[in-house]
Amino acid sequence: MGYENLTIIRDHIVLETVPSLIAELASIEQGRESLVSYRAAAGLSCEHLYGWRYRLNLVSYTLSSARPKYCHTMVSATIQATEDAIKRRDIMNRLRKTYLAIRWYESQFGELPAQLQDLVPEFLASVPVDPFLNQPLVYRREDGGFVLYGVGIDGVDDGGKFGNVADLYGSGGDYDIDTPSR
Predict the structure, then answer these.
(1) Which of 18, 45, 55, 110 is deepest in the core (most CB within 10 A)?
(2) What's phi and psi for 147, nearest 5 deg?
């Protein structure tokens, strides 16, 4: 079952299967390449492709007071696009996993958790982190339900203003579990 299908049927999933779905989503995330390993591989690739020019850029970067995000302008756009894609992938996985854990918690206790920390360790191994801010996902109970989201690629908390799939690529708005299907 694909991620989009999981999102569509999320409110019809048999509760007994939720723990195994959460475990599988966690396993998928742990098995993927991390940003750290991607950056290391990108650095090795730049060294191989550009040699002394890349090393000169590293020295320039180290000595410069204006610290650009990446050293080599020839590859920085590709690196940034790939890092953003990894973060989008991770945030959507974490939103789905957290949504399921919240519903599982609600089925066990008859109420929504007061905070995401209430899900740890019984429902989730740790509080899910928004990869764009390195802070916990935003969660609040609201009008008998809840709001769960990440700030998205612009790094700005828009207070739960959600857009559509185009917003996943930097035009603003927060990410919720339905953003890719709008």
Answers:
(1) 18
(2) -120, 130
- The tokens describing 69, both together, are 């995000």
Domain ranges of the chain: 3-31+94-176, 32-75
The CA-atom distances, in angstroms, between 67 and each of 52, 61, 64, 73 are 20, 6, 6, 13
Q: How far apart are CA 48 and CA 69, in angstroms?
A: 20
- SS3 state at 148: strand
φ, ψ dihedrals at 89, nearest 5°: -60, -45
pLDDT, one tens digit per residue, over 15-45 is: 899 999 899 988 888 888 777 787 788 778 8
Phi, psi of 146 (to 5 degrees): -150, 160
pLDDT digits (tens, 9 = 90+) for 136-157: 999 999 988 999 999 888 888 8
Residue spans of beta strands (DSSP E) within 39-161? 129-130, 135-136, 138-142, 145-149
β-partners of residue 135 are 130
Q: Encoding tokens for residue 49?
A: 């492709």
Q: Is the dihedral of CA 102, 26, 175, 9 positive or negative?
A: negative
